[in-house]
Structure prediction request, 243 residues.
Amino acid sequence: MEYKKKIDEYLQLQGHKALQLRAVLFDMDGVLFDSMPYHAEAWSQVMTDAGYNFSKEDVYMNEGRTGADTINTASIAQFGHPSTPEQIEALCKAKCEIFATYPPTPRMKGALELVSKVKACGLTPMIVTGSGTPTLLDKIESNFPDIFDKGHIVTSFNVKRGKPYPDPYLLALEKGGLQPHEAIVVENAPLGVTAGVAAGLFTIAANTGPLKESVLVQAGASLVFPSIQALCDEWEKLYKATR
Ligand code: MG
Prediction:
């Protein structure tokens, strides 16, 4: 009932008659991969070393932004001006170097089962991420074999403006030949939720990090699950409510 009610609220607000699901747009870090603890550690270390006041919680609050946008936002807030391209490049490089020393990021618990269920329903699973690591496509394919089509993945290489702008989700709709009422978003980060909602999509959050659930609700999430496993366990009920 709860699902149906939230879907109806969305439909009314957006002026659609019904959800006609054809695709599910998954964020990557903190949704498909349990990678956020590593990102939080690496970013907070690099930024602190460079003289920023930047905690792990700040990393979670900025999650979804591109690296350059994360650095610029902090620079403007703390020093009153954006960073130079050289500073951005150096910090991104330092972050990647630290990140590369960590063990491979594990799949999020329940993620493979969830995307497999989505696919078994005849829906197209897509990925919309602010990440831009060169090995990203290989990592996706080895962890989620034969699930995601390369043409259905949006990365930071594909858009000028990352989340919280709607651009990555709008591009995903374009790549998938989809209307907003034909897809839903699965996100874990407040800025990712903001981006999904701004693109006109029904947006679900899984709170896989340390932030309060209310942060995701305030960002506009229609539903918040405590984990990806919990969303996976509820998938059949949720999918039924969309039909
Ligand atoms: Mg995420």
